[in-house]
Amino acid sequence: MLHRLFVYGSLRSGFHNPAYDYLTKYFHLMGEAVVKGKLYDNGSYPVANPTTEDHYITGELYELNNINEFDWAIEQLDDYEGLNADPGETPLYKRELVEVYQEGQPSQAWIYWYNKSVENMPQLDMGDVLRYLQEKNKPVDNA
Question: DSSP 3-state assignment of 138?
Fold first, then answer.
């Protein structure tokens, strides 16, 4: 489905990001899903790159409410994700079609992959950004 979107980071429902309100105005949640990919910690937030290995990223699958609004809705998300870079600058993310698995069933959806080098970033074994950030920000018990 070219009118589906897979999100794994700040656009997920658990983040309560103001951009989520925009997302849910045009898309409806279909449920949890996974894609082949790897997460990296860039210091400020986790980012993702595709892989052919059996390594999966957990996220949410959304479907557009009105297919006639696709161009407008995706243009706003492209802007949020930093695809509209200034001349001479590299966009922060790139949008690509990817195979998404929901309850083991494959389908196609758009995803935003990180568009810069991850060479010096630590790879995250955990494939879930929300769980990773919860663990990372959990208070340390010094008992």
Answer: coil
